[in-house]
Amino acid sequence: MGVVITVAPTGPVATKADNPHLPTSPEEIAEAVADAYRAGASVAHIHLRDEHQRPTADLDTARRTMDLIRARCPVLIQLSTGVGLGVPFEERERLVELRPRMATLNPCSMSFGDGEFRNPPDKVRRLAARMRELGVKPELEIYDTGHLDACLTLWKEGLLAEPLQFSLVLGVRGGMAATADNLLTMVRRLPPGAIWQVIAIGRHNLPLTAMGLALGGNARAGLEDTLHLRKDELAPGNRPLVDRAVELARGLDLPLAGVEETERLLGLPD
Ligand code: KMH
Ligand code: ZN
């Protein structure tokens, strides 16, 4: 069974002022994704920005970005429905109508850095149901222990198809801290058969991504999660971060999953 590498080229917060290599236009994002695909990524987690680099759920921007990516490579597109803290849930959830192969599902509201990430239970349930209807595979974003319980409730309600696919997010201010203990606790609590990856933010990215791979998880890499390649050294693009994740997997003698294997592993509907 191969390791799934997801590239997350652009997140909801940083701008080119933080790292000039951050891709923000649809063309730049598509180029970064194609480069990551060539390096071994089989999934691309996508946030969109407007012309002022602000997070947006604009459907035309999303469509254009997806088309540009598809024209370049067969990577599996996962749209973020997290989008950005200021964007209303009603705009965020519309992105799944574009029927990406996957999309994120953030199960709970929380503090997020200095902001507030709003995911009210009734709207989360509605989005989960719509994703199931459309055959869009949810990636369940777990920032704290209770978020796992919220997902298990959705599962029991029949709103999530198996296998469940989790991201264990460590190091967001407002969520669980990026510690080895927290990662182990979460991995032990996952239901049997769950697929998972680590999302480790900032300086914790490297050690916790390595630990996740060693424990049998998948890996995510890119400027969404860390702007740095090393302490005090900005990453000169997404590719070096993806290369680093690929090298970690190779160092652990883990083969990479290509697109078709990833489709099978995640049980993606056609
Ligand atoms: N930005 C990460 C901390 C999403 O986009 O829906 C979590 C994330 C969630 O990637
Ligand atoms: Zn994201």
Describe the protein's architecture and organization.
Pfam families: BKACE. Keywords: Metal-binding, Transferase, Zinc. Its cofactor is Zn(2+). Helix content is 37%, strand content 19%. The strands form four sheets. An eight-stranded parallel barrel has the order 1-2-5-6-9-10-11-12, surrounded by eight helices. Strands 3-4 form a two-stranded antiparallel ribbon. Strands 7-8 form a two-stranded antiparallel ribbon. It is globular. Strand 11 (195-200), helix 7 (205-214) and strand 12 form a beta-alpha-beta unit. It contains nine helices and 14 strands. It has 270 residues and is an alpha/beta fold. The mean pLDDT is 97. Zinc ion binds at residues 8, 11, 45, 47, 80, 82, 224.
Give keywords.
alpha/beta; two-stranded antiparallel ribbon; 19% strand; zinc; binds (5S)-5-amino-3-OXO-hexanoic acid; globular; 270 residues; binds zinc ion
